[in-house]
Amino acid sequence: MNKHGLSRTIPAQVKREVRRSCGFGCVICGTSIIEYEHIDPPFAEAKEHDPDRIALLCPRCHAKVTRGFLSKEAVKEARRDPCCLKEGYASEFIDVGRKHPKIEFAGVTLVECDIPVQVDEAPLFQIKEAEEEGGPFRLSAHFSNSKGEASLQIQDNEWRVFTGNWDVEAVGGTITIRDAPGQISLQLSISGRDTIAIQNLNMQLNGMHFHGNTDDLVVESSDGRSMRLTNCIASNCHVGLAL
After folding, report:
1. Is 136 within 8 Å of 97 (Cβ atoms)?
2. Mean pLDDT of the chain
3. How far apart are CA 99 and CA 195, in angstroms?
């Protein structure tokens, strides 16, 4: 606690308001791996956790502030016009590694597939060889929320979460996107360097509705047809799952 008895623990609702108003990324550089910084006043003088007086900073920019290489005034200015809101997204890179990544798409596991999942002849996931010898494989993917609006995009290992989302958290190797309180539209986990796991899914895409968890994937079409996939595996295919 500080001298006013204020705990360092910021309430979840305040954190959500800060994430949304800062565009889910560092207000200086747009990186989506973030920490919370009291800027006006600093935490030592703060009497409350006011979301309008807290900024998102990446660890690097936060360290610059702590060490005096970036002023609080610069952070305040950036907080008024956050980088992510100007760009429309926050971004970071996935460490895919030098081994062909495995995709766990809810109830379907896809191994050594160039296009793990394809929807209406367009790749939902795509994996390409490294651009140069010894480099990482390249992963691309596109996700929508429960309303069919773009929520997350991965392009050659750079992931972008869009500022139109209701909420986004990136914690402990897991990206969680919510459409409303308690409503997760995407939960994507990076397990080590060789597995990308979709642990929760509620997505509208090309007239299809996808529901998924770690055990099952349910796909419903606009004409009322549906199918459930449970503990399925596709291996060494050009296209693993075509819908």
Report:
1. yes
2. 94
3. 10
**Which residues, in sequence order, are CB contacts of 143 under 8 Å at separation 6+?**
124, 150, 151, 152, 153, 177, 186, 188, 203
Compute the distance between CA of residue 52 and CA of residue 73 in angstroms, rounded to an integer: 15
Contact 199, 213 (CB under 8 A): yes
Give the CA distances from residue 9 to residues 21, 33, 105, in Å, rounded to whole numbers and listed in that order.
Answer: 19, 18, 34
Q: Decide: 161 and 168 in contact? Cβ < 8 Å.
A: yes
Q: Please write the tens of the pLDDT for every residue from 40-79.
A: 898 999 999 999 999 999 999 999 999 999 999 999 999 9
d(CA 44, CA 8): 10
Q: Mean pLDDT throughout 199-226?
A: 95
> Residues 106-125: what's their mean pLDDT?
96
Whether the link from the prior residue into 101 is cis, omega within 30° of 0, is: no
Q: Are 102 and 195 in contact (CB under 8 A)?
A: yes
The Cα 198–Cα 98 span in angstroms is: 21
User: pTM of whole model > 0.85?
Assistant: yes
154 vs 137: CA distance, rounded Å: 13
SS3 at position 201: strand
Contact 173, 187 (CB under 8 A): no
Q: Give residue-wise pLDDT tens across range 138-189.
A: 999 999 999 999 999 999 999 999 999 999 999 989 999 999 999 999 999 9
Tokens, residue 130: 């490294």
